[in-house]
Here is the input.
Amino acid sequence: MTGNVVIHPWCIERYSEIDDLSESVFFTGNGYIGLRGFAGWQCKKSPRDHAVFRAGLFSAIRPGITDMVQLPDVTTVIPEGHTPVQVLQRLDLKRAAAEWEWDTDDFRFLMQRIASMADPQLICVRLKVSALKNANLNVKVVEDPRVSNLPVHDDQTIQSTDLVTLLVPDEIAERHMAFHTIAEKEPVHISWRVTDSLSARSRVTVGDTVSETLSARLAAGDEWVIEKRIRVLCGNETANPDTDDPWTEHEKAWSLLLNDCDIVIDADDPDLQGALRWNIYQMLASNAASRSDVSIGARGLTHGRYKGNTFWDTEIFLFPFYMWTRPAAARNLLMYRVSRLDDAKALARRQNLEGARYPWMCSSDGSEQCESWDIGLCEVHITADIAYAADRYATVTGDAAFGSEIAELMLETARYWKSRLTWEPGKAQYSSFFVKGPDEYCGAAVNNTYTNYMARHNIDLALKYAAMPDEEREELTFVRDHIAILYDPERRLYLQDETLDRLPPLERPRSDAPVYHEICFDRLQRYRVLKQADLVLLMTLFPSGFTAEEKRNVFEAYEPITLHDSTLSWGIHAELALQTGLWEKGETYLKKALLLDLKDLMGNTGREGVHMAALGAAWQAVVCGAAGLWDNGDAPAVRPMLPPSVHGLSFTVMYHGERWRISITENGSSVTRE
Ligand code: IFM
Here is the structure.
């Protein structure tokens, strides 16, 4: 029997067996290491179970295609004869700790797991046993080197079955294991220390697994604590020094993060507060904040879906959260792209184009991982999305040095647009042929307005940030001024592209379940339906670039035909609906966005992991939609649009290196420097 996820303001609970959904919801991570919420009291059944990931560790599964490497699980602590079937699972959002609680006739058990926010290399696991009667207990501590990846097919409707071994052991010893990735020879070293409060130690056995059985006779009321500290090192990393109390240090580090990132929401629906905190927790738990050599995959460290690759999800959906709360982390995310500029140039060359073209699905080596033509080659807006985020960062943080870091990126990406767009002499315009917009059901469209608008903005940014010869400046200015933007002046409506209006409608009842399970992806391209927010998204990226009427017209024209088959859609619809005062739609989409993974509204959170971009979109729905956060050139500014069921919001943001507190109630708002 599977129980529902219960949401409290500071914790998430579920009483059930450990299934895929539990594994995603009770994920623990510190941005560097991530562990699904698997049962820590049992060994894996298959080498692909108990997924543990390390940010940035990718390995080739075949020439040119990589997967995020799964690490062995060495966390297991088994109270023999007392393991649960159903268990109370808890994610404590005040302490960033996952907990599992169960009772047997003789004992009460509490298992806890953290990925330390104070020490990126460290995982800690603790089993607390309380004796309810006088009884004997054997606890087996196991480290299992067996591990495989199950690379997930890009097509969501195809179930992958082939296991691939990416990591092989070099050494298995009592207190450590050494591995390397087969293709790249990247070393991985995992060590552990086991302690227990009764010093009930025994001999360690090293075989296929490493194990040790601890035995104790407990009297009623006794407590026994078994603890394991695990250190994961990759490449040439050296171990951080061990400390006495990593649990307290982790809590302190987490509370500093909460100080920067927490949002208090006063809403009629009590689930919204805890859901918002869980969303924020997940965004922090999959972000290696201090590193610029890794980014965030579409499922963070919660799952290997999309093979761990980075999409526009990072720059357009997640980025505003980091930019407003943790600017140094945001800068690192951008530097990840800056340092892959040469790869982007090489990709443009391979496509017989100029400048730099960022990959749609980016692996750690900067290579394109998307294997389809209509998405990998046609979904080109990613390049302009990156330029957009870089400019937003420079504007909101006032990071003066950053302009020179991104000048080349701006210029090379603008050059790409000049060569990717096609000059049509008869129309005296530059058109984008065969591009896929954010709406991935648009086929290979002509003049997708989102793409063209973003490309135009990208060229503008090159003109702003980069030095270039006068002749090139004139050329780029000419391109910018002649990019086709489809607009119907009579309806005062931006049009998505040149083909959408010519397609027949898709008559079917609406539901939250994605339609691609029933109608194949190719067939969906020829209906007048949208997969996800396209022009609706564009309106949110440029809040002062469109009139209120234009925003409303776009929402009213496109929302009714949007299927929201992508999890990136609801949050953005909530944001625009709230900012245009469409309260009913705004509230509905806000709730869906915030509860999407916790309530498994798309039915794939367990199977595919946490939808990182959806977390960012939900955050934007609250902060940019309900609070209307933007910047006015001197300070953060708000345009509160609280829907009737939300009565207040309070949070802080960073602007030009200073912290600002934003409070919004039904009676007014304040934006004050702290
Ligand atoms: O980037 C998204 C895309 O917009 C829709 N399909 C899933 C991708 C990864 O999240």
Q: What stands out?
A: The CA atoms of residues 229 and 595 lie 33 Å apart.
